Amino acid sequence: MNAVFNKSCHPVMQELADESVDMIFTDPPYFQYRAQNVKRLRNHKDIVTEFEFDEFISEEEYLAFLEVVLKETYRVAKPGASGYLFCADDFVSYLNRIIEVAGFKVRKIIHWHKTNPFPAISSRKMYANSMELLIHFSKGVPSTWNHKPVNEMHNFLNTAITTADIESLINKYRGEDKIEQLLGLMKDALRDGGTDSLIENPICMGKERTMHKTQKPLKVCTPFIEISSNPGDVIFDPFMGAGSTAIAALLSDRNFVGYEIDSGYCNLIQKRFDDFLAKNPGYNGRKPVIKT
């Protein structure tokens, strides 16, 4: 494993055996326009000056393409494997259906709040796109679930707390013995608050950002890989893009396998592999490679 195949994952993934991967994490192409020629200003705001469109000529063609890929993904997934798929909000209902047609069970829609989204273009009279969805699905009941508390999934300090809320708590838990009780409740909430379905993180910035327009940050990828897999497991991504799934897997002591049809992106992934190996001289796993 630890290989990215420089070819399409569609219509078959002949390199992969049945039930050979432990988890799926992927960001497929979207059927929509994408930002092009993004200008970054000094205040770190990005201004979009042009757009380009995906290669699919119709929604039907796009959905049929993903259905074939997901059926192949079901074939290579082990029983109990979890999967995560990024999607646009206007396609989530269609993708939910296709995921289940492929044989998986949709379990949850996760919301990623982007704290630095592309600004809205006022002439289009639309809100800024500050939210992206992530569909959690599984092949049967998930075999792995490594709980993460709420405060590890998003910054709970951003939650709005009003003066009235604070006064209500003070009145309810007035007195030294009650204060101790309140502190105990707060500690329990932070420790056992459940794994949340909301994450807050900026889009890729600074040194992590590459030429890939929809690159996913490692801080977004890594928690889900740690929740739904164990060290040594194989993480599968049929649409590697900039290789964030692969790098997140390596940093989490997991293995990976995937596909990327674009040779330019494969060159980018190779550079990220080289950077990873240079920064982690003690790494003793299988060397990550691009296979053509």
Write the layout of secondary structure elements.
Elements: E1 3-5, E2 21-26, E3 33-40, E4 46-53, H1 59-76, E5 77-87, H2 92-101, E6 105-113, E7 131-138, H3 150-153, H4 163-172, H5 176-192, E8 198-200, H6 218-228, E9 234-237, H7 244-251, E10 255-259, H8 263-279, E11 289-291
Parallel strand pairs: 1-10, 1-11, 2-5, 2-9, 6-8, 9-10
Antiparallel strand pairs: 3-4, 5-7, 6-7
Could you estimate the helical fraction of the residues in percent?
A: 25-40%
Strand content: 15-25%
What is the arithmetic mean of pLDDT?
A: 84
| Low-pLDDT segments | 38-51, 155-162
Count of DSSP strands: 11
CATH class of the largest domain, named Alpha Beta
Could you name the CATH topology of the largest domain? Rossmann fold
CATH architectural grouping of the largest domain: 3-Layer(aba) Sandwich
Instruction: Report the sheet with the most strands, covering strand number, pairing sense and barrel closure.
Output: 9 strands, mixed
Overall morphology: globular
Query: What's the arrangement of strands in the largest beta sheet?
Result: 8-6-7-5-2-9-10-1-11
Distance, first to last CA: 14 Å
Alpha plus pi helix count: 8
Instruction: Work out the radius of gyration.
Output: 21 Å
Secondary-structure element order, as H and E? EEEEHEHEEHHHEHEHEHE
CATH superfamily of the largest domain: Vaccinia Virus protein VP39
What report would you give on this structure?
- The protein is α/β, with parallel strands linked by helices and 292 residues long.
- The chain folds into two domains: 3-148 and 195-291, Vaccinia Virus protein VP39 (Rossmann fold); 158-193, no CATH class.
- The chain contains eight helices and eleven strands.
- A nine-stranded mixed sheet has the order 8-6-7-5-2-9-10-1-11. The chain has a two-stranded antiparallel sheet with strand order 3-4.
- β9, α7 (244-251) and β10 form a beta-alpha-beta unit.
- The longest helix has 18 residues, at 59-76.
- It starts with a strand and ends with a strand.
- One of its GO terms (cellular component) is cytoplasm.
- It is an enzyme of class 2 (transferase).
- Keywords: Methyltransferase, Transferase.
- Its EC number is 2.1.1.72.
- Pfam families: N6_N4_Mtase.
